[in-house]
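FAQ

Q: What does a record look like?
A: Structure on top, sequence underneath. For example:
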């Protein structure tokens, strides 16, 4: 059905928001099962605009249900496609919004969308999220079942799009969308970023199975209890070449009012008994004055909560004063993301950090008693053996310093990033197919490392990653043997105090669930 025919065929717009299951590699130790914050924000805005809206969170409805995929190396968590179709039958909708956050999920997402469209051929199918924002034209070309892609922030765009549908207006005036018409695929101008973040309606969590996440201790960071996701800022002022943020959010960084954030946190403490907050910010710490004010006010409230920045942070504002306040306010775990120990690589990927300054900040965090994890990456285009060895040498320094955890990922060229565009242009990524998209998950799988450097093979990259991790933990546990015994005790007692605890406990749980499933089948 053409969009114009769809508009003429409906009397009232009724929306259903769909979050698809999560896809991971079979032995992935670097994934998180988290509530859909972006979709909940969109739900809040649509609901406030007065539209009939429901939501189906296919992951949240069955977060512990694992389903093997055709490719034996991958599994999904959440409802099956048959279960999703069955659940949708209970919803009354003529517009379906599908969130696709990660590009590696595109093959499964496309298959699900095609099946849903066969069952509901007359619905208007809209997609949004990080993936569709990074390559909207490709999504429409590769999946003809999709009618519209929302690019960038979805709150204002979704509401304006629905008004155009309802009022039977042309989509040509709706900023921030790419859509299908009789004339082909049309791309409208990008929508300007939302200036007043405090005016955005809070996420409509009442529409999602939030208790399934909370009661199972699921979230993005370490599990200290009932974890709620929250944003204190949007955007990132930096332009790292491996990140798609500049296209999704632009380089404009802005923070919410501290009191507005605290009011939202208080609401979650009262309503959901939240004991931990996972900050989903791209770069939470940019202005020292903001984070100091935030920490001081949390301390005064005496909430006895924890809060985390699990995605990694920079070190510019993390001096002794700031780190002390962070720790006192509940920031017990902190992740630094230098990405590389090679100055040459840092320059190439535009990661504007000073290794010496970051080491100083890390030492201060350790001195405060914080649990410190470091995120590194190997396998950038043109990265040499020498540069990778410099990163591995950096891991040795970190182990000696007393850093608690480290993760060495392999570089993945995500759509929308500067490196992805360069690699497509020079033929390093000849085509976008299932192999490419599923290969993006190699960053968290040591045994399927994909090297995009002509100097280093896939096998060598995997060996570098494994060697770097082993070297770090051997040095760390040799210098501090109590840590090893505590790790073993934590795994036995299922007590998460750090990233390694979390990863090992998750692996043990998955093995037990797999055996249980096998025994049941037998």
């Amino acid at each position: 059905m053409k969009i114009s025919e769809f508009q003429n065929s409906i009397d009232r717009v009724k929306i259903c928001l769909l979050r698809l299951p999560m896809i991971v590699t079979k032995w992935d130790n670097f994934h998180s099962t988290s509530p859909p914050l972006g979709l909940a924000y969109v739900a809040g805005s649509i609901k406030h605009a007065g539209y009939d809206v429901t939501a189906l969170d296919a992951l949240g409805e069955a977060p512990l249900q694992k389903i093997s995929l055709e490719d034996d190396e991958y599994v999904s968590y959440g409802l099956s496609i048959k279960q999703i179709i069955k659940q949708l039958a209970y919803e009354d909708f003529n517009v379906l919004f599908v969130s696709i956050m990660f590009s590696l999920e595109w093959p499964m997402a496309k298959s699900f969308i095609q099946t849903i469209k066969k069952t509901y051929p007359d619905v208007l199918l809209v997609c949004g999220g990080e993936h569709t924002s990074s390559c909207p034209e490709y999504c429409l070309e590769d999946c003809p079942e999709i009618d519209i892609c929302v690019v960038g922030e979805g709150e204002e765009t979704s509401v304006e799009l629905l008004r155009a549908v309802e009022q039977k207006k042309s989509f040509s005036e709706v900023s921030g969308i790419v859509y299908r018409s009789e004339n082909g695929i049309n791309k409208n101008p990008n929508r300007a970023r939302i200036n007043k973040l405090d005016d955005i309606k809070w996420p409509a969590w009442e529409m999602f199975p939030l208790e399934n996440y909370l009661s199972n201790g699921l979230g993005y960071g370490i599990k200290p209890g009932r974890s709620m996701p929250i944003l204190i800022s949007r955007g990132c002022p930096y332009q790292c070449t491996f990140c798609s943020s500049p296209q999704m959010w632009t380089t404009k960084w802005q923070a919410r009012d501290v009191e507005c954030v605290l009011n939202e946190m208080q609401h979650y403490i009262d309503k959901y008994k939240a004991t931990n907050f996972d900050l989903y910010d791209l770069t939470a710490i940019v202005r020292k004055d903001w984070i100091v004010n935030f920490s001081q006010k949390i301390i005064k409230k005496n909430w006895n909560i924890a809060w985390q920045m699990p995605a990694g942070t920079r070190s510019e504002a993390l001096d002794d004063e700031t780190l002390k306040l962070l720790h006192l306010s509940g920031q017990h775990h902190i992740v630094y993301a230098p990405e590389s120990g090679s100055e040459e690589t840092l320059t190439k990927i535009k990661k504007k950090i000073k290794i010496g300054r970051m080491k100083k900040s890390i030492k201060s965090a350790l001195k405060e008693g914080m649990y410190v994890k470091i995120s590194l990456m190997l396998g950038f285009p043109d990265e040499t053996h020498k540069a990778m060895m410099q990163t591995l040498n950096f891991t040795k320094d970190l182990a000696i310093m007393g850093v608690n955890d480290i993760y060495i990922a392999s570089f993945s060229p995500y759509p929308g990033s500067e490196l992805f565009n360069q690699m497509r242009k020079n033929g390093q990524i000849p085509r976008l197919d299932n192999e490419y998209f599923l290969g993006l998950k190699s960053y968290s799988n040591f045994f399927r490392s994909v090297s995009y450097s002509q100097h280093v093979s896939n096998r060598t990259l995997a060996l570098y990653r494994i060697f770097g991790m082993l070297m770090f933990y051997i040095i760390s546990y040799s210098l501090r043997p109590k840590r090893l015994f505590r790790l073993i005790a934590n795994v036995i007692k299922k007590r998460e105090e750090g990233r390694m605890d979390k990863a090992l406990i998750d692996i043990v749980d998955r093995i037990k669930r797999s055996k249980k499933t096998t025994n049941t089948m037998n």
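Q: Is there anything notable about this one?
A: Residues 517-522 have pLDDT under 50 and may be disordered.
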